[in-house]
Amino acid sequence: QVQLVESGGGLVQAGGSLRLSCAASGRTFNIAAMNWFRQAPGKERDFVASISWSGGNTVYADSVKGRFTISRDNAKNTVYLQMNSLKPEDTAVYYCKLLMIGAHYWGQGTQVTVSS
């Protein structure tokens, strides 16, 4: 089993920054990639960013390109999401997702609220 613990959410004014973290523990010896998703009230959960665990290749949703940066620390089994130039429409619960061959795991989510 794998456990994911997210942190770093909070309330910030538009234009501000936040850094989210997601630490994985347990049977983490075969991670393929880690992703960030977000879900706003009344909306579906949407993809935000992804990073491959071995090569560090990244993919971003168009809505966050140039503002958000995903990174990882393999030694700590932790993925980060640096969020800059935040907008009110970035308000959502942010979830990390860990991908392995044949399995995936979700974190519990962390609330990000951007005030205008």
Structure classification:
mainly beta
Biggest beta-sheet profile: 7 strands, mixed
Q: Give the termini distance in whole angstroms.
A: 40 Å
Strand content: over 45%
| Overall 3D form | globular
Would you identify the regions where 5 or more consecutive residues have pLDDT less than 50?
none
Explain what this protein looks like in three dimensions:
The strands form 2 sheets. Strands 2, 4, 5, 6, 9, 10 and 11 form a 7-stranded mixed β-sheet that branches. A 4-stranded antiparallel β-sheet has the order 1-3-8-7, with no helix packed on it. The chain is mainly β and 116 residues long. The protein has strands spanning 2-7, 10-13, 18-26, 31-39, 45-52, 58-60, 68-73, 78-83, 92-100, 103-106, 110-115. The N and C termini lie far apart (40 Å).
Could you give a short description of this structure?
The chain is mostly beta strands. Helices cover 0% and strands 60% of the residues. The protein is built from no helices and eleven strands.
Give short descriptive properties of this protein.
116 residues, mainly beta, seven-stranded mixed sheet, globular, 11 strands, four-stranded antiparallel sheet
